[in-house]
Prior knowledge:
By secondary structure, the chain is an alpha+beta fold. The chain has two domains: 3-125, BirA Bifunctional Protein, domain 2; 133-173. The chain contains four helices and nine strands. The chain has helices at residues 3-24, 83-87, 93-114, 116-125; strands at 28-31, 35-38, 41-53, 56-66, 133-138, 141-150, 156-159, 163-166, 172-173. The strands form two sheets. The chain has a five-stranded antiparallel sheet with strand order 8-7-6-5-9, with no helix packed on it. The protein has a four-stranded antiparallel sheet with strand order 1-2-3-4, covered by helices on one side. A hairpin with a 2-residue loop joins strand 2 and strand 3. It is globular, with a radius of gyration of 16 Å.
Amino acid sequence: MRGWQNMESAAVALGVYDFFSKYAGDETTIKWPNDIYWRDRKAGGILIENIIAGAEYRWAIAGIGININQTNFPESLPNPVSLKQITGKDRVSFQLAEELHRAVLNRTDQLKAEGFQPIYQSYQSHLYKMNQLQKFKKQNRVFEAIVKDVSPCGQLVVQHATEESYDFGEIEWVIIKN
């Protein structure tokens, strides 16, 4: 996640955060790079496919999946949660989709108008496990480190014996099933 791709990813993640936290409250966070968590449970995720021709950015497609009314999840999922489980209310999905669309557009418009710094600061302020000890896995090694930051180029920065930065896919979060 470098350059424009990281900026756009952060803006989309913030738009989804804005939407979800409106209903689920301030226990909503963004788990690097762009999952939506409520407490320690995954409420949704975002996948972004960037189209680049040579060195020129063309466009991106963002796929957003949010658990809205689901109450039964496969056993294989470690910690899922839905908006219905959090609020106790059924929601009309297509109406929420329109609201989600507006929230994401608001953040991408903010990125265009104000640049990356306000988006970056907001992303940092909603980061899951910020300044907390977390287990990670790199290849066969499991280690604990404090989540310190996400760099402007999109790397997760953690601190244990030394400070280290990781690109997406280099390490995994170790999630303990509730």
